[in-house]
């Protein structure tokens, strides 16, 4: 249990450092300003950190290439800011949860519109 809490704390610290770097530290033109870190998962042995990023507006593929190109710089900054014996390898992954949430919200809105339209047509038919 203590190990789980430790990995959660380390993951949160890594998330803070990488988020700050995305705002101010990385000058790669492929990395758009609409990149945000949604989650970080660290393996139990602290050898890998999976950084989930959400990319809104822009080319996901080129942004991900830019992040992967800057991974050594990001890892060095994580090493400076998070005191660990061994800094984990950072692996970037796309997090589509925001995009999927927007899609689901749109579907729900359309269903509600269809229900409202059907009920208003039903009410008009009963008035006659």
From TrEMBL:
Assembly information from the UniProt record: Monomer. Binds 30S ribosomal subunits, but not 50S ribosomal subunits or 70S ribosomes.
Lineage: superkingdom: Bacteria
Alphabetized Gene3D superfamilies for the sequence: 3.30.300.20
Record Pfam families: RBFA (PF02033)
Protein name: Ribosome-binding factor A
Compartment(s): Cytoplasm
Keywords of this entry: Cytoplasm, Ribosome biogenesis
Similarity-based family: Belongs to the RbfA family.
Function, in words: One of several proteins that assist in the late maturation steps of the functional core of the 30S ribosomal subunit. Associates with free 30S ribosomal subunits (but not with 30S subunits that are part of 70S ribosomes or polysomes). Required for efficient processing of 16S rRNA. May interact with the 5'-terminal helix region of 16S rRNA.
Matching InterPro entries: KH_dom-like_a/b, RbfA, RbfA_dom_sf, Ribosome-bd_factorA_CS
